[in-house]
């Protein structure tokens, strides 16, 4: 494992429901096969926007912090809150500014547009190529497992409760088939009315 | 001078098996590919070994074919030597292990899955690694989409991570009925064909019950 | 007396010479480490009543057009044709093996009992056995014929990998010819709606595209048409077929190399 994106492990997934979105990540931080932490959250909140970063942990912390600064500056200068698609473009251009010495992160953006009320999810590669999806996006070392789960469990127009159950099962079962993803999970469900529910998931600790 | 590489990346797409209380299912797509090229859209990867045994071997397809030929020969000799006695799946699985381990130092590059009805009438799934290590399991996926299929089977066949809504305890394992299992196979493969380019064209399902064998075919995406 | 223990019990250097350990660093003996004189693509497709196979007549030595009348379609038995791409010396080995098979099969039974599935299986086992000895026959084979009166078409490569399909091709053909042939026969059964003339036209079109874009292809080729007439197999091998209606007007548009006025 000399691939920087697979040293620390970790995965995340985001899904669109009816007037809601959910984003979830695992809590593991490891050094190759050795788990060093079980409370390493990979989802960061920027106003109404939720951004998950998987990949190299040092870059996860660097990029998430730098994005915090850029987000705060945007809200001060613009005197308005940032929409999810704006956050996504910001992440994209941040990553592309490092085109030839990239941060080894695989971000996801999830949120609900405050004017249109449209749910929004988006994923990126490590140099900022955007992939806006109408159903779900996944990232991390359990990418294949997450795709397998999400493709078969996902349905259109789920309620917040259904969406929570679906994204949780997707994350948990995918994590159990990836040795370097797991040690618990974290789920945010964001509703159109502004309600945000944060839940921790208990899972296998091996 | 680079050495000749006796292994290639030609293979069938993916396969999957589920064991039930009185049935066993083996499914695979009919796409055969080399790298990103589709060689054939109609190449069945499920081998009928006779004696109610079916086998798929994902990996290098020339080795897969050789393994099937070896097994057929073994079964033929078993019949000659034992007055046509039916080879049980547990014995067939051990035989498969012997063949695979026999090539420990020039391995068959395959992940075989075998199904049959066990001696006690229950459905049996046996899966192997390329060197012959094997086990009987409730379900197994192999091939290009194994990483996508396996967590779904954990979740839906063995109810991994599911809690009983009444008690809040882990949901009790119960044996799936046949129709549920077939529907799971279809869902799993349509999902896998969506994301794995080597999987597609047609889904072939072999259903084994005490009454015999049933084969079903379903369309998958062809791009 | 030898004073170094590791030399005890070993042949004396002064009598037998020093131990030759060079084999420890050597690789296994192999024959074809790379192909030398080669044929390019072989292509084939089914139609409602049989199979068409084509291979051009060029045997290249690297980029040199070494032999321009190399026959690469081999008739085996009375109703099967094997098209061979890759190393030409290995092609000749396969030719000899097929001759041997025909002779041994004709001792106790008439030779026409040899069908395409028989030959396919036999060749596959030879190819797989040779790759397992790390001494491969460096070829791609296309086998066309009949199985229970139905058209039969199969492919084998140097590793012993094999498959059947209504349209098959080796080498550049898998990128350039397959899309043309699959317009007519995409999946098994599609050949029911394809006539012999349509199949021959598609194969000729594919051979033209291959000649345009494959630098190791020739515009002279052999075309085998296998069909059933009143239940009897009919094998027609057309030789010295030319790529017709070539259009090189685009060549003038290509700038940057070659002889040009400007």
TrEMBL record, chain A:
<comment type="subunit">
    <text>Component of the proteasome complex.</text>
</comment>
<dbReference type="GO" id="GO:0005737">
    <property type="term" value="C:cytoplasm"/>
</dbReference>
<dbReference type="Pfam" id="PF00227">
    <property type="entry name" value="Proteasome"/>
</dbReference>
<dbReference type="InterPro" id="IPR029055">
    <property type="entry name" value="Ntn_hydrolases_N"/>
</dbReference>
<keyword id="KW-0963">Cytoplasm</keyword>
<protein>
    <recommendedName>
        <fullName>Proteasome subunit beta</fullName>
    </recommendedName>
</protein>
<keyword id="KW-0539">Nucleus</keyword>
<comment type="similarity">
    <text>Belongs to the peptidase T1B family.</text>
</comment>
<dbReference type="GO" id="GO:0005634">
    <property type="term" value="C:nucleus"/>
</dbReference>
<keyword id="KW-0647">Proteasome</keyword>
<dbReference type="GO" id="GO:0043161">
    <property type="term" value="P:proteasome-mediated ubiquitin-dependent protein catabolic process"/>
</dbReference>
<dbReference type="InterPro" id="IPR023333">
    <property type="entry name" value="Proteasome_suB-type"/>
</dbReference>
<comment type="function">
    <text>Component of the proteasome, a multicatalytic proteinase complex which is characterized by its ability to cleave peptides with Arg, Phe, Tyr, Leu, and Glu adjacent to the leaving group at neutral or slightly basic pH. The proteasome has an ATP-dependent proteolytic activity.</text>
</comment>
<comment type="subunit">
    <text>The 26S proteasome consists of a 20S proteasome core and two 19S regulatory subunits. The 20S proteasome core is composed of 28 subunits that are arranged in four stacked rings, resulting in a barrel-shaped structure. The two end rings are each formed by seven alpha subunits, and the two central rings are each formed by seven beta subunits. The catalytic chamber with the active sites is on the inside of the barrel.</text>
</comment>
<dbReference type="InterPro" id="IPR033811">
    <property type="entry name" value="Proteasome_beta_3"/>
</dbReference>
From TrEMBL, chain B:
<dbReference type="GO" id="GO:0010499">
    <property type="term" value="P:proteasomal ubiquitin-independent protein catabolic process"/>
</dbReference>
<dbReference type="GO" id="GO:0005737">
    <property type="term" value="C:cytoplasm"/>
</dbReference>
<keyword id="KW-0647">Proteasome</keyword>
<protein>
    <submittedName>
        <fullName>Proteasome core particle subunit beta 6</fullName>
    </submittedName>
</protein>
<dbReference type="GO" id="GO:0005839">
    <property type="term" value="C:proteasome core complex"/>
</dbReference>
<dbReference type="InterPro" id="IPR001353">
    <property type="entry name" value="Proteasome_sua/b"/>
</dbReference>
<dbReference type="GO" id="GO:0005634">
    <property type="term" value="C:nucleus"/>
</dbReference>
<keyword id="KW-0963">Cytoplasm</keyword>
<keyword id="KW-0539">Nucleus</keyword>
<dbReference type="InterPro" id="IPR029055">
    <property type="entry name" value="Ntn_hydrolases_N"/>
</dbReference>
<dbReference type="InterPro" id="IPR023333">
    <property type="entry name" value="Proteasome_suB-type"/>
</dbReference>
<dbReference type="GO" id="GO:0043161">
    <property type="term" value="P:proteasome-mediated ubiquitin-dependent protein catabolic process"/>
</dbReference>
<dbReference type="Pfam" id="PF00227">
    <property type="entry name" value="Proteasome"/>
</dbReference>
UniProtKB/TrEMBL annotation, chain C:
<dbReference type="GO" id="GO:0005737">
    <property type="term" value="C:cytoplasm"/>
</dbReference>
<dbReference type="GO" id="GO:0019774">
    <property type="term" value="C:proteasome core complex, beta-subunit complex"/>
</dbReference>
<keyword id="KW-0539">Nucleus</keyword>
<dbReference type="InterPro" id="IPR023333">
    <property type="entry name" value="Proteasome_suB-type"/>
</dbReference>
<dbReference type="InterPro" id="IPR016295">
    <property type="entry name" value="Proteasome_beta4"/>
</dbReference>
<dbReference type="GO" id="GO:0043161">
    <property type="term" value="P:proteasome-mediated ubiquitin-dependent protein catabolic process"/>
</dbReference>
<dbReference type="InterPro" id="IPR001353">
    <property type="entry name" value="Proteasome_sua/b"/>
</dbReference>
<dbReference type="InterPro" id="IPR016050">
    <property type="entry name" value="Proteasome_bsu_CS"/>
</dbReference>
<keyword id="KW-0647">Proteasome</keyword>
<dbReference type="Pfam" id="PF00227">
    <property type="entry name" value="Proteasome"/>
</dbReference>
<dbReference type="InterPro" id="IPR029055">
    <property type="entry name" value="Ntn_hydrolases_N"/>
</dbReference>
<keyword id="KW-0963">Cytoplasm</keyword>
<dbReference type="GO" id="GO:0005634">
    <property type="term" value="C:nucleus"/>
</dbReference>
<dbReference type="GO" id="GO:0010499">
    <property type="term" value="P:proteasomal ubiquitin-independent protein catabolic process"/>
</dbReference>
<protein>
    <recommendedName>
        <fullName>Proteasome subunit beta</fullName>
    </recommendedName>
</protein>
